[in-house]
Amino acid sequence: MTERKDVPFTLEALQSAFKSGELTCESYIDAVIERAESLTHLNAFITVDWELLRKPARDVDQRGNAGDGLNGIPLCFKDNIPTGVLPASAATKALAGNVGGASLVAERLLNNGALVGGMGNMHELAFGITTNNAYSGAAKNPWNTTRIPGGSSGGVAVAIAAGIMPAGIGTDTGGSVRLPSALCGIVGFRPSINRYPSEGLVPVSHTRDTTGPMANTVKDCRILDAVMAGKEEAAINEVASLSSIKLGVPRGYFFENLDPEVARLTEEALQKLSDAGVTLVEADIPNVGELNEACSFPIALYEFMQDLPAFLATYVPHISIQDVADNALSPDVSGLMASLLTDGAMPESVYREAIDVVRPKLQRAYADYFSNQGVDAVIFPTTVLPAAPIGDDETVDLNGERLPTFPTFIHNTDPGSNAGIPGISLPIGLTRDGLPVGIEIDGPFNSDERLLAIADALESVFNFTQRP
Prior knowledge:
Elements: H1 11-20, H2 25-38, E1 45-47, H3 50-63, E2 74-78, H4 104-111, E3 115-120, E4 132-133, E5 137-138, H5 154-161, E6 167-172, H6 178-184, E7 187-190, E8 210-215, H7 218-228, E9 246-249, H8 251-254, H9 260-275, E10 279-282, H10 288-315, H11 321-326, H12 331-342, H13 348-373, E11 377-381, E12 395-398, E13 401-404, H14 405-410, H15 414-419, E14 423-430, E15 436-442, H16 448-462
Parallel strand pairs: 2-3, 2-6, 9-10, 9-11
Antiparallel strand pairs: 1-3, 4-5, 6-8, 7-8, 7-14, 11-15, 12-13, 14-15
């Protein structure tokens, strides 16, 4: 990894440097571009246009408002979040070059002054967790370039972890913000469902999809969350004292079959929290695995076959879902698309059972847990293993066994996604091989601001400051 230029890499520090005049927006953007160009081998981006980035940076300097809100701050947007500035192709050939208008959440960020720094590489159509994409190439983990960065928001995580961009926006259907954040050693937040608008995003599932901020610190995620939720006037300085925090530790399901290094770092993190005054309540969430499995893929696969055609008809009517399938280049995604279109989609009866019966039971299981145990959130390892080698697309090694890659990596992030509750992944340390490990806290539905305040407090205990 090349040495970082001496520029701030958090939003907070950038805002301060801009306002004090210590840094101009244009000089900062020049440093961003220089670093990006020196790290092209990481393949963090699908599309960049440096001149298109320099011009608004100069405009910000001329207006003299750099550092007010997000003015002058470049963000990496995942390639399925249309910005109206650069193409958003969902990293698939059929949608290449599709600029269109801005999605509503991107509009909120751009109206607050954010700049489109680049479009982040991702797993094709967001249907996977490796970001090993046959169309756009594999994104590489900056901690070890032979390893995956996670996905599907892998490129955004790489750009932030490598110190190219100060922050970014991913999307999360079953873990796609939190998972790459954990594997790349940054912070990733998935909000309660519908906290942010979803209009204009390239979809997988309207019940499960959400955008989410990714950054180096919880505070930066809080800054972005306020804008994305349309609450930028609200105070984001709520403080949670460590001694007031109660966390559930659901060892059943969430702590099963952990990689030894993930287990070691997780136990060390829990001990640090206990020593700092956090109350830990050992209690499992009843039937969480069974309920999650019964609604996860039925919802995602059924809604994908409704939502993607609707998106195409609205925004790119000359492209059909068959065109997308015919041009999907990644074997896992191509195979899935062919299966859905040829063998038939998820039956509506299975979907209705999942969405009307099983998902409400899962949501109730979480709500009862938080209420009955009197806890603010649950805490568990974000992933059961660290970053896998690039190429382990179908199976991955875990404790001497080859297991299916996708379900193994989303094992812990998926239940909260299906329940629609907020979750945030924080980095807690490095394995003995130098790979980051994350820990996640999930809170009750609509407890987003409290959960972020708790995460802020926990971050100070973990104090993870290492950089690749």
